[in-house]
Design goal:
Structural class of chain B: alpha+beta
Oligomer: heterodimer
Distance between the termini of chain B: 43 Å
Strand order of the largest sheet of chain B: 1-2-5-4-3-12
Strand content of chain B: 25-35%
Shape of chain B: globular
Shape of chain A: globular
Largest interface: A-B, 45 and 43 residues
Number of strands of chain A: 0
Largest sheet of chain B: 6 strands, antiparallel, barrel
Number of helices of chain B: 3
Number of strands of chain B: 12
Largest sheet of chain A: none
Helix content of chain A: 55-70%
């Protein structure tokens, strides 16, 4: 049997396979979140994989693809949340974009870097979510719910960052050689 | 930038209620599509666990001791399952004997999930519009009020718990029938009881029941909470009162949805 060499994924546009893989990643993570992680509740809060997805996408594939992935992930997540529709999409695209932008120039040789980035970005994402929720008329999101969400969400994001990053990297290709150093490290 | 604008547009449209039907429809569809997957994963998890356990203990090198241990384990598991079944039965029996439900028709539902969001105190039930559940219906547990249905799809619904910060319940207490407002402060936290005038006689453990006033969101006389502490300062315009929900919201298994809706 002749083996066909896989198409190099670096430097090309999104293909149907990439879209299909992204759909699988979002669906699998959604199922894990709502069947398992929603029950892992400490002090009223639980780990949030749906927030980790845009962070991983921004880290793996840069700001633009991070933003698109975050927007779509957020729209899907919002279907199952009682909070205003579109809020997760807004936070997701901001988070994917800013994570991609902030980590673009990093040399990715440290095993702990994804965990640190995930923890910091999750804290920022939860903060943004609570602030935007408060602006939209629910001040309790900032006053009451933010602290437990940070206490549980940040360390759990650090713990789950590496497997989620590997999963997302399988689905979201890098945008191209322009990412330079950021594209190549030992994360994948 | 385009995505940010698109997100803001979606939020604005949802906030103003202009596309509420479309968004609600999409949410209902997503919940209906997801419900079988959720049930399937729940059903799968148990046999997989049993299979892995059986594989570990099913090798050729298994000794008689191991067989005996497995038998003991099976018996213990059966005993625990019987205990779990008895607990479920007791929970259902308690629901059948709620005195304050009166003649209001009820739908008994199982709690399928805790809040999917860290920013709201809610639960999900396995009964929805197919079973006659509608938005606004009160939900009660063994000991008292649990919350109110805020979202319904065909096979399930979301209930906002009384501990959610957006929850407000008009209550009555004491021999004089004093009125107050119980408000949530977040999951696992005490309830705040507001609008009690300074000098109102209060007692620890006093039970607050729904007031059932005109336009109230709940029927009258459902136990809501019991007072845990109260204090007052000379210049205060109201007593500072905390209360604990009577329904144990941490271990809810079965609840009753009251098919009752407030008169507009």
């Amino acid at each position: 049997m002749t083996r066909v060499a896989p198409t190099p994924r670096v430097g090309r546009t999104l293909t149907t396979t990439d879209v299909a893989r992204s759909t699988i990643v979002i669906a699998v993570v959604l199922v894990i979140q709502h069947t398992i992680l929603d029950s892992v509740r400490v002090g009223g809060a639980h780990p949030d994989l749906m927030l980790l997805l845009p962070i991983a996408a921004g880290y793996a594939a840069g700001p633009d693809r991070g933003a698109v992935f975050g927007f779509i992930t957020g729209l899907v997540a919002d279907l199952f949340l009682p909070t205003p529709y579109g809020l997760s999409a807004l936070v997701g695209c901001l988070l994917g974009y800013s994570t991609g932008l902030a980590t673009r120039g990093l040399v990715r040789s440290s095993w702990w870097l994804p965990s640190v980035v995930a923890a910091a970005a999750t804290a920022a994402g939860l903060g943004a979510y609570a602030i935007l929720g408060a602006v939209l008329g629910d001040p309790a999101m900032l006053r009451t719910y933010l602290v437990p969400a940070l206490v549980v969400g940040t360390p759990s994001a650090a713990l789950l960052a590496v497997p989620i990053l590997r999963f997302v990297t399988w689905a979201v290709p890098e945008p191209g050689p322009s990412r330079g150093v950021a594209g190549g490290g030992g994360l994948r | 930038m385009l995505l940010v604008l698109a997100s803001i547009a979606i939020i604005t449209v949802d906030y103003r209620g202009e596309a509420h039907g479309v968004i609600s429809g999409a949410k209902r569809g997503a919940h209906d599509a997801f419900a079988p997957i959720q049930r399937g994963v729940d059903d799968l998890a148990r046999p997989v666990g049993s299979f892995l356990s059986g594989a570990v203990h099913g090798g050729d090198l298994e000794t008689q001791n191991a067989k005996l241990r497995r038998e003991i384990g099976t018996l213990q598991r059966q005993a625990l399952m019987s205990q779990a079944a008895r607990n479920s039965l007791r929970a259902l029996e308690r629901l059948d004997q709620l005195p304050w439900v009166g003649s209001i028709p009820t739908v008994t539902a199982q709690v399928t999930a805790l809040s999917p969001s860290d920013f709201a105190a809610s639960i999900q039930l396995d009964k929805g519009s197919k079973s006659g559940v509608a938005v606004g219906m009160p939900v009660v547990g063994g000991a008292g009020l649990v919350g109110q249905v805020i979202e319904v799809w065909s096979s399930g619904c979301t209930v906002r718990l009384v501990t959610d910060v957006d929850s407000s319940v008009g209550v009555r207490f004491g021999a004089a029938g004093n009125l107050a407002l119980v408000q949530g402060s977040g999951l696992g936290r005490s309830l705040a009881v507001n609008l009690i005038a300074p000098g109102t006689p209060l007692h620890k453990g006093e039970v607050l029941t729904t007031s059932g006033l005109q336009y109230a969101q709940y029927p009258a006389d459902i136990p809501v909470a019991s007072i845990t502490s109260f204090s007052s300062t000379p210049s205060a315009t109201q007593e500072t009162v905390s209360a604990r929900p009577l329904a144990d919201l941490a271990i809810l298994q079965y609840v009753d949805v009251l098919q009752w809706q407030s008169t507009p």
